[in-house]
Amino acid sequence: MKTLNDFNFKDKKAIIRVDFNVPLDENFNVTDANRIEAAKPTIDKILADGGSVILMSHLGRPKGAEDKYSLRHIVAKVSEVFGVPVQFASDCIGEPATTAAANLQAGQVLLLENLRFYKEEEAGDVDFAKQLAALGDIYVNDAFGTAHRAHASTTIIAQFFPTSKCFGTLLAKEIESLNKVLKNSEKPVTAVLGGSKVSSKITVIENILDKVDHMIIGGGMTFTFVKALGGSVGDSICEDDKQELALEILRLAKEKGVQIHIPVDVVAADDFSNTANTQVVDVKAIPEGWQGLDAGPKSLENFKKVILESKTILWNGPLGVFEMPTFAAGTIALGEYIAEATANGAFSLVGGGDSVAAVKQFGFEEKMSYVSTGGGAMLEMLEGRTLPGIAAILE
Against a cut of 0.85, is the pTM above it? Predict the structure, then answer.
């Protein structure tokens, strides 16, 4: 696996695919600069070598060249984060891009206009990729969030750099962290899978059953399993057509010696609202008109024991509707257990939009071994798929 450390960038122009798809407010101020900050180590290394940097990214889902999706809006924030003045090219191909790239000196940074102003980007167009490739000497992919897409700038471009392409620091760390869970894990390994639907996690569950010792099932998925086992789930979210699948997962897990842990009690509410009436009930006996919205105290005690005995922990999905403070206690407690296990030497990987949001919201980010930056990309890796953006660098 080629990384930045395999190259000296002195007098070289590195063309880097970054993921600067950041949120902007109505005045085009960046409201969360995490993705820009995540790219900084890669930029620092190249500039320290005496190279120059050409950054390419998408922003939003524009239909053609729409100014509200222009990357010019983020130039000031990128300059601030990197600590160098960032130049901007008003196009990502053609004369504005080629002139700006040709004039770039060592130690300088250039940001190209939004790649998705061209439909050729998402179509994986070879000619478009070739025009991008002509701007730089070495191709670096540091965009894990888009590594599962075979777009021109994430995958196709790599063919024009047969021996001069590598992973950036961020993407290398993502691969390394996932491999630590999927291939080189220290046992016991525990996967915590939450979220509302079994159907969205089924491929992940099937792929990681061979790699884990414990699997904690939480969130709305719980109730499909509980109902399949003969319990009453009241008005809780439940995929009735996936009950057979839930039983098959339990059978497979037993066959492979994996212990599945399902909540034994839940915080139930008489309405999907933060101000609803609540009661703690047995997970198999949720009354009609009530729905389970968080893991209960006995469940959390059971989960705590499993987590604190684990050496490798994967967390993908919350235990309850944490967006409402009334139903956030389970997810917060889980974060505390994982943080404690991590402090005691376990390796913890958090990924998937909702888990990452919870970790940030409740201040656990610094207490986890690694927090992934790519939701869809991470899920596909957990499903055992080869991501095109990663394969293109390894070829």
Answer: yes
